[in-house]
Write a structure and sequence with these properties.
Structural class: alpha/beta
Largest sheet: 5 strands, mixed
Number of strands: 7
Strand order of the largest sheet: 1-2-3-4-7
Order of helices and strands: HHHEHEEHEEEEHHHHHHHHH
Distance between the termini: 36 Å
Helix content: 40-55%
Shape: elongated
Strand content: 5-15%
Length: 325
């Protein structure tokens, strides 16, 4: 039976894909998780991520490098500016100081602009009882209370049918996240869940770019062991032929990015050239299965220019031998 490796490519790491999808579809995020705010924001004027200000908040508050926090400026339909603090927490376990951190972001954000701040915490853990909603401090007649919005992804477990029917990207994001938690260390069930979600992307009438963006998220959080992953790519290739939607070349580039990270990590200590060779070997294994020994030897002896040429051929190759012709 296939086992799931502890390698990062097969782990449930959510920071990077959550940030990418949030940045690309912020408006949809607000519509899905903050419907009241969505109705009152003047989306015709757009929005602005305050990255510089966010860096100041995290640095001066000494609360660490929080990649998933987003500080956005929006305008209301009544013409007023408002600052919305989007705090997406993807910790897999209870955080004792979570309300404190939310409050620190609140007062630091308010101190920057003196705008009202709306805090939103997306809790992606599996503890049904952990639902922090406020920061409170009282002493000698003085009291500070900060209540923030909380979305518990686990609560959507009872609304799977609704998630599957929604066209909002974050319905699919939430569905993929729930399935990732549910199918952890169960590759067979994870394969079926991933295939069901990916197939639905082609049936919803999404744009090419939205399919690719959502694929990136689903592929990351529902990572499969090598054997199931190869089968998935074969099935996906067949699906695209049937649907006549040739997005695979773009999606394969996503796979290459994952392979670059894995290969570079493995080869970093031994030098850049070795890292690229490991990267290309990992991609070849992912697409074609275990290659013959002569390929490993060839990769180890190649210079950087040759490795790049072979890497470019990988996308269009029907069999592994074509890469080296």
């Amino acid at each position: 039976m296939t086992t799931i490796s502890e390698d990062r490519a097969i782990s449930d790491v959510f920071d990077s894909p959550w940030k990418e999808i949030l940045d690309a579809y912020f408006k949809d995020f607000v519509e899905f998780f903050l419907p009241q705010a969505f109705k009152e924001i003047d989306w015709r004027r757009g929005y602005e991520f305050l990255d510089t200000e966010l860096v100041r908040i995290t640095r001066e508050a000494k609360i660490g490098n929080r990649h998933m926090d987003r500080l956005a400026k929006v305008w209301l339909k009544n013409g007023l500016e408002r600052c919305i603090l989007i705090h997406v927490d993807i910790q897999g376990e209870r955080q004792k100081n979570f309300p404190d951190r939310m409050f620190i972001y609140y007062y630091r954000s308010y101190d920057l602009k003196q705008w009202p701040v709306v805090g939103v915490a997306i809790l992606a853990d599996t503890n049904k009882k952990w639902r922090p909603r406020e920061f409170r401090q009282e002493l000698w007649g003085c009291q500070v209370v900060y209540r923030f919005n909380v979305v518990k992804l686990l609560d959507f477990s009872e609304d799977i049918a609704i998630l599957e029917q929604s066209d909002n990207p974050f319905a699919i994001v939430t569905l993929a996240h729930l399935q990732a938690k549910k199918t952890k260390k169960r590759p067979g069930e994870r394969y079926q869940a991933k295939w069901h979600i990916i197939r639905s992307l082609y049936q919803r009438g999404f744009s090419r770019q939205k399919i690719i963006d959502l694929f990136r998220f689903v592929d990351w959080v529902l990572a499969l062991p090598p054997e199931e992953d190869r089968q998935f790519w074969q099935d996906l290739s067949h699906l695209e032929e049937v649907q006549q939607m040739p997005y695979l070349s773009s999606i394969e580039r996503i796979g290459m990015e994952k392979g670059i990270e894995k290969g570079m990590e493995k080869g970093m200590e031994k030098g850049t050239l070795k890292g690229h060779a490991d990267m290309l070997l990992a991609l070849i294994k992912n697409r074609f299965g275990q290659p013959p020994e002569w390929i490993s030897t060839k990769l180890a002896q190649a210079d950087m220019e040759t490795l790049v040429q072979w890497g470019n051929k990988l996308f269009g190759a029907k069999k592994v031998e074509e890469i080296f012709q």
